[in-house]
Design a protein that fits this description.
alpha/beta; 14% strand; binds uridine-5'-diphosphate-glucuronic acid
């Protein structure tokens, strides 16, 4: 099918590339001149495993094209995806300006082209309930073209977005027209493994499904994070509890890992938006508010623990920060717990030496010369009074810990992601503070250098 994707940001580019990969002829439309130039040069502007190769392959074959000309791109298309950002406002409200502008441009272009057949407009962006119905109502006035609207929320995780797209747990389509559902069924046919995973519903249900999914996942994390407080007080181990409750098929094992809080461009934004759209109907959601409060507290609790357990005044202490990205396998730092922790420690007067395999440049834009940027975790830890581990990069669990302990001023590690091995910490003489797990506190082993 001939498909256009408006917006070649994270969601748009993954969508465009994967649709080309399953056999469609796709035109990606990008307004940002620099990004467009990069795309037309065959460069992938974001770091996402597997995306660059797939993009280059289909760009080279011609099944994926990029343009800045919306009218040219919409000529003869059957399906148009809107994949522009819907960023959060300060009060959690969703900023709809990009989406409104993009849908207007699509309508204007289609009105000029006046296609002879039905065009399906697919809203991929995460939007508040009621948005698709509003867009559909506006389009009804469009006399020159026949356009139907569907909502198709995305469930892509950064780091595994290509796989999530090509092997989806479910595809959700919201709309009113059986014809639109049939077109979307045909579009996604190559990746629909079981009919029951292709779910059709009304617009509002599809829109709220997206928020409900992210809020449910964030709730599981916040619940486990709150449990770490009890674990630390009663001497329980959150990892044992995670495994034990995760085997209950009614609970399941996913998204139960406790840590120093969730981040990213999705959970914080969508949970805040859900609180906001509840407020808009006069309902203050106790539950959704609690998810956010627990997350904020958990980031702070981690930072405070460093100050409390450091064994020396934080002012003037050197802390190595391992990991800046909001999770492993990405350079994305949006809402990363590392931002809050760094800010807190800087306010307390600590010297920070930070490192990350991918996200250092992005974090440098925020903290500039307030932090010392170090190429690798071993160098960052040398001479430090403690390490604060904030991202679950797998390579951090296999570092040369004996060497690291020997070069630190005091061998203390605060593991905000529970990703180091307790036995390795003990064998190498570390004082070790995980989240919600028994700490290894052996002050006798502390080597206090002059
Ligand atoms: C999330 C959802 O998982 C996707 O399904 C959704 O499509 C996407 O948001 C979106 O709305 O676009 P993403 O933000 O890429 O994806 O990252 P996740 O893997 O969900 O992780 C989010 C945060 O939760 C990270 O900070 C991660 O470290 C944290 N997390 C995750 C935990 O603290 N514990 C866990 O058990 C899992």
């Amino acid at each position: 099918m001939d498909v256009a994707v408006v917006g070649c940001g994270y969601v748009g580019l993954v969508t465009a590339t994967c649709l080309a990969a399953i056999g469609h002829s796709v035109r990606g439309i990008e307004k940002d001149a620099r990004k467009l130039a990069a795309l037309q040069d065959g460069q992938c502007p974001i770091f996402e495993p597997g995306l660059a190769d797939l993009m280059r392959e289909h760009y080279a074959s011609g099944s994926l094209q990029f343009t800045g000309q919306i009218k040219e791109a919409l000529r003869d298309v059957e399906v148009v995806f809107l994949a522009v950002g819907t960023p959060p406002g300060p009060d959690g409200a969703v900023d709809m300006s990009y989406l409104n502008a993009a849908s207007q441009e699509v309508c204007d272009a289609l009105a000029e082209l006046s296609p002879q057949y039905m065009v399906t407009l697919v809203v991929k962006s995460t939007v508040p309930a009621g948005t698709n119905r509003r867009i559909a109502a506006c389009l009804r006035d469009l006399k020159q073209a026949c356009v139907q609207v569907v909502s198709n929320p995305e469930f892509l995780r950064e780091g595994s977005a290509v796989q999530d797209f090509l092997e989806p747990d479910r595809i959700v389509i919201g709309g009113e027209s059986p014809e639109a559902f049939r077109i979307m069924r045909r579009l996604y046919d190559p990746i629909i493994k079981r009919e029951e995973n292709f779910l059709t519903m009304n617009w509002e249900s599809a829109e709220l499904t997206k928020y409900a999914a992210n809020a449910m996942l964030a709730a599981r994390i916040s619940f486990m994070n709150e449990m770490t407080i009890l674990c630390e007080s009663y001497g329980a181990d959150i990892e044992d509890i995670r495994k034990a409750i995760g085997t209950d098929f009614r609970i399941g094992p996913a998204f139960l890992r406790a840590g120093c809080g969730y981040g990213g461009s999705c959970f914080p934004k969508d949970v805040a938006a859900l609180a906001h759209i509840s407020r808009a109907i006069g309902y203050e959601s106790l539950f959704v508010n609690a998810i956010q409060t627990v997350n904020r507290n958990q980031k702070l609790r981690f930072a405070r623990k460093i100050v409390e357990k450091l064994g020396r005044p934080i002012e003037g202490a050197t802390i190595a920060i391992w990991g800046l990205a909001f999770k492993a396998d990405t350079d994305d730092i949006r809402e990363s717990p590392a931002i809050d922790v760094i800010r807190y420690l800087l306010e307390k007067g600590a010297h920070l030496r930070a490192t990350d395999p991918k996200a250092m440049e992005n974090m440098r834009q925020i903290f500039r010369d307030q932090v010392q940027w170090v190429a690798d975790p071993v160098s960052a830890a040398a001479g430090a009074d403690a390490v604060a581990l904030l991202t679950d990069w797998p390579q951090y669990s296999t570092l040369p810990f004996r060497k690291i302990a020997a070069t630190m001023n005091q061998p203390i590690i605060f593991d905000g992601r529970n990703c180091l091995h307790r036995d390795v910490m003990r064998e190498n003489g570390f004082v070790y503070y995980p989240m919600g797990r028994p700490a290894l506190e052996s002050p006798l082993r502390l080597r206090q250098k002059a």
